[in-house]
Design goal:
heterodimer, A: about 500 residues, alpha/beta, Rossmann fold, 2 domains, six-stranded mixed beta sheet, 17 helices, about 35% helix, globular, B: about 300 residues, mainly alpha, about 70% helix, about 0% strand, cell membrane (chain B), transmembrane transporter activity (chain B), Nucleoside ABC transporter membrane protein (chain B), ABC_transp_permease (chain B), transmembrane (chain B)
Chain lengths: ~500, ~300
């Protein structure tokens, strides 16, 4: 590589107060190469990319753009320099069309020529293997399509450096496959790409260079072809052997804690399932196939229209008419911020959201006693930073999830409904969550809703596959024939369409 | 009700709807950029007073009308400074602006109560005014009414067919997305507040320069609040604002006529009609939320990038 790197970061450091987010980071981005940034939550990946995109200024260090030192004091300057970011949370105007979003802020003419806009967007999409209708409203699009619009925005302004911040976190496997195809075309077109991900297989599949960040520093950087396997990569990342296969001891299943019989509504068809204390039932499927309404119904957020649900021996209506804070149902929702926690409340208050009944004395809620308990849990679950006065939004996704788990396990639940419990978590955090769930299984029955096949296989005693609002099959985790057919079942009947 | 009564009533509806229409269009423009301005009533009355005073001093109604718009923009800029620069609460700031504007105008105008100033008189358009029915209703009005026929389509063209309109709307729908796309959201919102304030000021000036030709205390009489409600009724679309404004104008004109005809209904009840209709309209508009273009980030300040 004799060519000057498009971007060279040299000795970048960034502090937030006394917290060191980035320390002496050096990194090169080259034309036609994909650099993967790998690291745990809070390792400093997002900070580093925000510095590159002009949202933050480094405290130390220099950014070289085609060999020239540059300082980006605003996002506009980074945009002009050809740096484009596909954010994890899309920055799109829902009420506008695809073409309007793509042209927002970069129309060359004062008048919008809608025919011209449609044509250009179509051409761009086709040349990079994307399929999205320029006239469609953003609010009607799937997550994958929205991401394509974000990419189209960058392509239209001819960005030469593209940063993808955990782009596959919100995608179905098929959409992720398409995204990689698009990224390969971009690489062939000579763009420099940064790919941030937790998923090791994806990094191995797409990256040319892999940089591993830990506690704000680049601890390892290597060409992808020098990495033998995902296991080796995982080891380098966490610095110790990762148990991708968690250890499980079988627990004798006991009494029924959840039965669903013949549940029917607009999104659900003939759902039957049962969960016993001492087992994990893994409900696997691509998101959007009825898991959400099913979970909401089981957890009392939606009224079952027909069919019966029995929780801990009580019929749905009776179960939810009386509130019991402990030895009951714990719901660990997918939305850690929003459903599980209130972003503006501190950790103690969030802890008390579901556990308050355990601490009340008459009309009073003694914060001191609850604080002691919460502080112990924060230490036990290694929630960082370990300060109860922090607000929920100040925590990273992994730490917030640990707080939710700590809180819910404190309730000694008998039935746990866990929805995508490790989504967006790094391996170490995910492993913690898995071990916690396996341990909780001794006291509770667990319904684990997940789209991650590895997770389902590693944890579940029994598996159920959901597609199109139906449960296609339920079988034991050790049933190899059925396990092999899971991917086909997850894809439903679309197999013929895919070929 | 026969033809001789109906046509003048409809013509009066257009005339009394016009100041509300100016104010509604101004507020739509402001809200489209994401700023909720509840100071309409205050801005309107400041516009009304400024127009009246400038007309009295210069004797030139056209200059006075323009000056009223500028005064409206200046008044609205207070709201812009509070909400856009200092991240103040938009509801509180708007309410304060209304109280300030009304108090200010009544105080300064106290010396002029009952006095007259030159203004605009009806100016029938040749040919068009001869169309039976439509002619007397729409084309025997004054110049300022004709102006409002042009504003909604021009505003629509600007908002939907130009890149500036696209940026302004994006600032109101999703400021974060607009910033990410390199749009200067602060500038967009300031433009929204100032241009909106300009139109609202014009609405006030219509009252003192064309509707009455004189100054009285509380000249706007709650029309600014009606405009705020009409924005919701209009689903934030300039074209729908026309129907809403004329509907209210009609009720106001009808109420005056009923009073003049010596009806048995107490006048205080009649005076309530437009405001009762406002409540009715709001209930109706919230019923069918379906087709509304309400800006998603309306009333939410832009969070500063840390």
């Amino acid at each position: 590589m004799t060519e000057t790197p498009v971007i060279r970061l040299e000795g970048i450091s960034k502090f937030f107060g006394s917290v060191r987010a980035n320390h002496d980071i050096s990194l090169e981005l080259n034309r036609g190469r994909v650099v993967a940034l790998l690291g745990e939550n809070g390792a400093g990946k997002s900070t580093l990319m925000s510095i590159l995109a002009g949202q933050l200024q480094p405290d130390q260090g220099v950014i070289y753009h085609h060999g020239e030192p540059v300082i980006f004091t605003s996002t506009e300057q980074a945009i002009v320099a050809g740096i484009g970011m596909v954010y994890q949370h899309f920055k799109l105007v829902e009420a506008m069309t695809v073409a309007e979003n793509v042209y927002l802020g970069q129309s060359p003419t004062a008048w919008l020529k809608s025919r011209e806009m449609t044509r250009v967007v179509n051409e761009l999409a086709e040349s990079y293997g994307m399929q999205v209708r320029p006239e469609a409203l953003i609010s009607d699009l799937s997550m994958g399509e929205k991401q394509q619009v974000e990419i189209l925005k960058l392509l239209l302004r001819q960005s030469s450096i593209l940063i993808f911040d955990e782009p596959t976190a919100v995608l179905t496997p098929h959409e992720a496959y398409n995204l990689f195809a698009t990224m390969r075309r971009m690489r062939a077109a000579g763009k420099a790409i940064v790919f941030i991900s937790h998923k090791l297989e994806e990094v191995m599949a797409i990256a040319d260079d892999i940089a591993i960040l830990k506690r704000g520093e680049v601890i390892d950087i290597m060409p992808a072809d020098r990495v033998g396997s995902t296991a080796e990569l995982a080891e380098r990342m966490v610095g110790r052997e990762v148990l991708l296969q968690v250890e499980r001891q079988s627990v004798e299943p006991r009494q029924l804690v959840l039965t669903v019989e013949n549940l029917q509504d607009d999104f659900l068809h003939d759902i039957d399932l049962e969960v016993r204390q001492g087992e994990i039932l893994g409900l696997i499927g691509v998101a959007g196939n009825g898991q959400k309404p099913l979970v909401q119904t089981i957890c009392g957020l939606r009224r079952p229209r027909s069919g019966t649900i029995t929780l801990l021996g009580l019929e749905w209506e009776r179960f939810f008419s009386r509130h019991r804070w402990d030895k009951s149902l714990s719901y660990i929702p997918e939305e850690r911020q929003g459903l599980a926690t209130c972003r503006g409340l501190d950790l103690l208050e969030n802890f008390l959201l579901t556990t308050r009944s355990g601490f009340t004395v008459g009309p009073w809620l003694p914060r001191g006693e609850a604080g002691l308990k919460a502080q112990r849990l924060v230490e036990e679950f290694d929630i960082r930073p370990p300060d109860l006065n922090n607000l929920a939004w100040q925590l990273s996704g992994g730490n917030l999830q640990k707080l939710v788990l700590a809180r819910e396990f404190h309730r000694k639940p008998r039935l746990i409904v866990a929805e995508q419990p490790t989504q967006g978590l790094d391996i170490a955090a995910a492993e913690d969550v898995w071990n916690l769930l396996l341990k909780a299984r001794e006291q509770a029955g667990i319904l684990l809703v997940t789209g991650d096949l590895n997770e389902a296989l590693a944890l579940s005693d029994r598996l159920a596959v959901m597609f199109g609002g139906r449960i296609l099959a339920t079988f034991a985790g050790g049933d190899r024939d059925m396990v092999e057919r899971i991917p086909q079942m997850m894809a439903g009947l679309t197999q013929e369409e895919m070929t | 009700m026969n033809y001789e009564i109906l046509i003048p009533l409809l013509a009066a509806a257009v005339q009394s709807g016009t100041p509300i229409l100016y104010a509604t269009l101004g507020e739509i423009f402001t809200e489209r950029t994401g700023i909720l301005n509840l100071g309409v009533e205050g801005i309107m009355i400041v516009g009304a007073l400024s127009g009246f005073l400038v007309a009295k001093i210069t004797g030139n109604p056209a200059v006075a009308f323009f000056a009223a718009g500028l005064a409206g923009a200046v008044a609205a800029s207070l709201h812009g400074i509070v909400c856009i620069i200092f991240q103040g609460n938009q509801v509180v700031s708007g309410l304060a602006l209304t109280i300030l504007g009304v108090g200010f105008a009544n105080y300064i105008g106290a010396a002029y109560v009952g006095q007259a100033a030159p203004g605009f008189d009806p100016l029938p358009i040749p040919l068009l005014s001869q169309i039976p029915g439509l002619g007397p209703i729409f084309f025997r009005q004054d110049l300022l009414v004709y102006l409002t026929y042009l504003i909604p389509p021009l505003m629509w063209l600007f908002l939907y067919q130009t890149r500036y309109g696209l940026s302004l709307r994006a600032a109101g729908e999703n400021p974060a997305a607009a910033i990410a796309a390199g749009v200067n959201v602060v500038a967009c919102r300031f433009v929204g507040v100032l241009v909106g304030g300009f139109f609202i000021g014009l609405g006030g000036a219509y009252l003192s320069l064309a509707y009455t030709h004189l100054w009285t205390n509380n000249l706007t009489g709650g029309r600014g609040w009606i405009a705020v409600a009409l924005v919701i009724f209009a689903f934030w679309r300039p074209s729908r604002a026309i129907f809403g404004a004329y509907l209210f104008g009609g009720v106001m004109a009808l109420q005056l006529r009923l009073q003049a005809s010596g009806t048995q209904i107490p006048s205080s009840l009649l005076l309530m009609l437009p405001y009762a209709l406002t409540i009715g309209v709001l209930v109706l508009a919230s019923w069918r939320r379906g087709g509304t273009d309400e800006p998603a980030a309306l009333g939410r300040n832009i969070e500063p990038v840390d």
